[in-house]
Design goal:
Layout lengths: L18 E4 L9 H14 L6 H7 L4 H11 L2 H5 L3 H18 L7 H9 L3 E5 L4 H11 L7 E3 L12 H10 L6 E5 L2 H10 L2 E4 L9 H4 L4 E2 L8 H13 L3
Parallel strand pairs: 1-2, 1-4, 2-3, 4-5, 5-6
Helix pairs in contact: 1-5, 3-5, 5-7
Length: 244
């Protein structure tokens, strides 16, 4: 765990764009609905119910956070004696089984990472555990392009805290003012802005963002196929002009 994360200071708020940091679930892979179904199936198996509201509360968070939410909302200790570690093992195992059957890459995601990597450093900052993240990167062929990979279990505080993005940038040696992040969730956008980065909202069709969440973004795209070098630069410029 990283209690404090060192960042190279920015020389100016108008630093040129140097890095693009991607979220994974909902951005590179269309798995938020898979996470929901896996949790719903588990809840049903113990006579409980997992709602869309429950699911949205976990989006972007790390394993420590979402396992705590599941224990509390499903009353797992009272129902079957499960603690956070036990439910994490159960759900991660079910998710990996889903990925091994089919990896639901979001349309245009692989091409978007390759496009960004041609001109900028690229990194992954995901709330998912390393076991799932590294499987996705290997299976998608994106592993060689990622100059830094930070998973939810690498930091004490997951999204919406900025730690996961700050650690990714620290590993790249790039200041937040010189980076753009791409997120699909409100927690993820809050994390980006708390880190001092430009933020692109790329919500999927199953989990639309509220107006409040979209207001955090410097740019919105409706699909990963829409991402271009020009839009990366535009998001960075919008963040630079925004009042701080």
């Amino acid at each position: 765990m990283n209690a404090s994360i060192a960042i190279h200071p920015s020389s100016a708020s108008s630093s040129p764009l140097q890095a693009v940091v991607f979220d994974m679930d909902g951005v590179l892979i269309d798995t938020e609905i898979v996470w929901q179904r896996v949790r719903e199936d588990f809840a049903q198996s113990i006579g409980a119910r997992w709602t869309t509201e429950d699911q949205e509360s976990t989006m972007g968070t790390n394993t420590a956070a979402w396992s705590r939410i599941m224990v509390e909302r499903l009353r797992l200790r009272e129902r079957n004696g499960m603690d956070e570690a036990a439910i994490a093992r159960e759900i991660v195992g079910r998710m990996l089984a889903q990925y091994l059957r089919h990896l639901p890459l979001r349309a245009g995601a692989v091409e978007a990472v390759r496009m960004a990597a041609r001109s900028h450093a690229v990194a992954l900052a995901t709330g998912s555990p390393a076991e799932l993240a590294h499987h996705v990167l290997q299976a998608s062929g994106l592993a060689p392009l990622m100059q830094a990979v930070v998973c939810g279990d690498d930091v004490e505080y997951g999204k919406p805290a900025p730690d996961i993005y700050l650690l990714a940038l620290s590993r790249l040696g790039i200041a937040p003012q010189a980076a753009v992040g791409i997120e699909d969730s409100a927690n993820g956008l809050r994390s980006l802005k708390a880190a001092g980065m430009a933020a692109i909202a790329a919500p999927g069709p199953d989990y639309p963002l509220s107006a409040e969440a979209l207001a955090l973004a410097d740019l919105r795209i409706d699909s990963m196929e829409a991402l271009t070098p020009g839009l990366l630069q535009q998001a960075h410029a919008n963040a630079t002009r925004a009042p701080r």
